[in-house]
Amino acid sequence: MIFDTLENCSLYYEVNSGFEKAFEFLKNSGNLPVGKYEIDGSNVYAMVQEYTTKPEHDCSFEGHRKYIDIQYMVSGTEAMDVTDASKVVSKTAYDEARDLEFFENCDTAVKGVVQSGEYAIFFPHDIHKPSMAFNGKQEQVKKIVVKVAER
Question: What's the whole-model pTM score?
Fold first, then answer.
């Protein structure tokens, strides 16, 4: 997991060959409407989302096997928990088509907060619980999730 701001994104370009394209998209995203955006075919794509953050007990831990998530907050503040895959128990079967699996809650998760202009990067071993209201205060957020194929 990485929590950072766009001004430091070049530090991570060597981590994965798709990161530079992903961050260039984010830097130039402007005020895109909700929807899915192709950046580099199925290797790198983005989903613009708008929603109201939820109470922690209404959120679920999730994980992905094929893609790295870059979750960038365009506006608003969101809390996100993260833990290592070795510390969780699967709650649903892995859905290969959606690259998604849900997990039971975990007491050893670390909480991060992502505000406007910041992002979190979750690798396949980072099981994460996004969309949580920060300090219990639900608010409208706009987020771009960029999916980068694990290589």
Answer: 0.95
